[in-house]
Amino acid sequence: MKSELLNIVLYEPEIPQNTGNIARLCACIGAKLYLCGRLGFVLSDKYLKRAGLDYWDKLEIEQVNSLDELIQDNNESTFYYFTTKTDRLYTNIQYKKGDFFVFGPETRGIPEEILNKNSNYCATIPMRKNTRSLNLSNSVAIASYEAIRQFDVVLE
């Protein structure tokens, strides 16, 4: 079952430390974490566990086979796709509680086929022109806290 606040989707994550950091963030803000598709590590990876510290029991996490399956199971929800391949700023979107934020693999991002199918729901975090991308866990934190700011909730 999805989170009433926010849902974070890592599509084919590759680096266990990033996923561990994101898991810790999700535990701290009450977001559900979905690990989607092929993972670049095993869930018992020591770097994943270490980055998540002792927050694993405070986290709702689910592994799903495909993004299509996740969307189908949550077809009443809005999915936003974070990418460098759009001009739509993440701060110019009005998020709703229960939305899904999708982030792609660290080395290649969300596939263009998915972005093209969902171009009205793509969002970007601004960066200088000659830079390629932010760290995945930083991007998730930036986007998540913008949603929480908009929701005007007190995290308990």
Q: Can you list the strand order of the major beta sheet?
A: 3-2-1-5-4-6
How large is the count of helical segments? 5
> How helix-rich are the residues, as a percent range?
25-40%
Question: Which CATH-level-2 architecture?
Answer: 3-Layer(aba) Sandwich
Uncertain spans, ≥5 residues at pLDDT below 50? none
CATH superfamily, by name, is SPOUT methyltransferase, trefoil knot domain
> Quick one: overall form?
globular
Span between termini: 20 Å
Instruction: Output the radius of gyration.
Output: 14 Å
**What is the total domain count?**
1
CATH topology label: Alpha/beta knot
- The beta-strand count equals 6
Q: Please provide the ordered H/E string of secondary-structure elements.
A: EHEHEHEEHEH
The overall average pLDDT, rounded, is: 92
CATH class identity:
Alpha Beta
Short recap of the structure:
This protein has 156 residues and is an alpha/beta fold. The protein has a single domain, classed as SPOUT methyltransferase, trefoil knot domain (Alpha/beta knot), CATH 3.40.1280.10.
